């Protein structure tokens, strides 16, 4: 192990002793997005092996972060790296071993060596209970744009435009109106009012019109 707590390796050397240069690795990968991320790297660059835990990962955003077990700075994990190495997603709390490269803003995962999901918190455990979030609307049905929404955390925010307060949307409100997910940039129709989280959605529908109440 190096003095920084990471195990340093020549760039392109895979755990297990199989040499493979960066160009060889990505030449056989047809997905250009991953190629672009590591463009300009040479064999002079060093890989470091990082062991840690998934802090969070959001497939809709395309990335997440790893908390190294030695307490060093969080490591960026991109979805294209994850999926190239055979994983569809990374659950919070999963233990991961990966090879990383130093980037301008810190370490970034280059290759996933292994992932142990026995310690992970799976989505079914993270979804909020059906607590019936009740908000009295003070607005009409207004068009709003999704800023972000995380199903695992069970909430997100929409906005009616610049200069207006963000509107908190609880997963339970989505369920109540027959919706299961929101995508960043998506437009919806909402009625909202003041609540425990500031302005909160009392009613939400797809932009093309109300879908009606879902049965419980």
Notes on the protein architecture:
The chain is mostly beta strands and 216 residues long. It has 2 domains: 113 residues, Nucleic acid-binding proteins (OB fold (Dihydrolipoamide Acetyltransferase, E2P), Beta Barrel), CATH 2.40.50.140; 80 residues, Nucleic acid-binding proteins (OB fold (Dihydrolipoamide Acetyltransferase, E2P)), CATH 2.40.50. Helix content is 13%, strand content 40%. The strands form 3 sheets. Strands 1, 4, 5, 6, 7 and 8 form a 6-stranded antiparallel sheet that branches. The radius of gyration is 21 Å and the shape is elongated.
Task: Compose a concise summary of this entry.
This protein has five helices and 13 strands. By secondary structure, it is mostly beta strands.
- Give a short account of the largest sheet: 6 strands, antiparallel
Order of helices and strands: EEEHHEEEHEEHEEEHEE
The top level CATH class name of the largest domain: Mainly Beta
What's the architecture of the largest domain in CATH terms? Beta Barrel
**Broad shape:** elongated
The amount of helix comes to 10-25%
CATH topology value of the largest domain: OB fold (Dihydrolipoamide Acetyltransferase, E2P)
Averaged pLDDT, please?
75
Number of domain modules? 2
Discrete helix count: 5
CATH homolog superfamily of the largest domain? Nucleic acid-binding proteins
**What is the rounded distance between the termini?**
55 Å
Structural class determined from secondary elements? mainly beta
